[in-house]
Structures are given as C-alpha cells and as structure tokens.
Amino acid sequence: xxxxxxxxxxxxxxxxxxxxxxxxxxxxxxxxxxxxxxxxxxxxxxxxxxxxxxxxxxxxxxxxxxxxxxxxxxxxxxxxxxxxxxxxxxxxxxxxxxxxxxxxxxxxxxxxxxxxxxxxxxxxxxxxxxxxxxxxxxxxxxxxxxxxxxxxxxxxxxxxxxxxxxxxxxxxxxxxxxxxxxxxxxxxxxxxxxxxxxxxxx
Length: 202
Hints:
With 202 residues, this protein is an alpha/beta fold. Helices cover 52% and strands 11% of the residues. The protein has helices at 3-17, 20-35, 47-61, 74-83, 89-96, 121-133, 146-151, 166-183, 193-197, and strands at residues 40-44, 67-68, 104-109, 136-141, 154-157. α6 (121-133) links the parallel β3 and β4.
C-alpha cells in the first residue's frame, strides 16, 4: 500500500469516527456567543495558528462574528514573548482585550495544552484566564485533547487512527470541522462566493 493510499484511508476512518453530536454542541456554544454579543477569540500555535487566522476570516465574513486571533499581530506576539515569556503571550493579550463572560475562546490544537509536559503552556494559561472570568470555551483538538478537553464546554476531538500521523490529521481536521461550523445553518449568515455566483446552487 502506498503512503497516499494509507493517508487517505486514515482520513476516511477519522471522518467516520468524528462525533456529530460534539460538533452540534460546539455550534450551539458559538451561536450563543454571537447572540449575546460576545467576541470569539481563536487561539492556536504553529500550524494551528495559521488555521486560526483562516478561521477568523470565515467566522467574521461568513458567520458575522466579531472574531480575533492573537497570532495575527506578530509585533505584539513577539514583543510579549521577548519581554514577558512565551507561556503568557495569549493570557496577557486576552487581558488587554478585556476578556469577559460574554466572550468565547476557540482552541485549535493537536495536544490541547499540557503544563506538565511543557507543551503549549500559553494555551493553558489562556484557558485558565477564561475559566476565571467565566468565558465559554470550545475546542477542536487531537489526541486526548489535553487541558482543552478538560476545560471546554464543548469540544471536538479528532480521533487518533495512527500514532505516527496525529499532527497532520489533527491540523487538517481543524479546518474540516470549523468549515462545518461556519457552514452550519445556525451560524452561516452570508453566502460564500462560489455558491452565490453558480446557477446550479440556486
């Protein structure tokens, strides 16, 4: 079996194992956030940071959210890393944005954050701040979900089908799942471009 066949086979297995009820719970949390006038802060590290930037665009443009990703401002991110340390870059950014109980964090992560293993401690600090102020927490995470899965009010865990490919599948499925969210009738407010101009979709 070629690697391409294997990778696509694993992808199909993950799709079959994803829990749609978990997706629905996340959508409801997000819909409630928008309804109460809360903001959506999307956090990720590495490849998940790039996904967070893309997701912010989709939630703002398609879903009508006020949404932000701290990693979109590289000047502030690197200044905080340099001056205060990596582990607090998100929590201090969120303090500056006056995170409150109306708001919601959407965490995109492979491991979900683990202080003991020093993996994404900045996500953990942000989650702890959200818990302190009463903000809601939603996650799309891989593996066992780490601290995110413990703290979240709703979470989608990307199933592990091969320990050797946890990261690529987790990061790929972040995109699959948040596109499900913004396409969901409960969240979608504006048409996506190709569907709006293609006659076959009318």
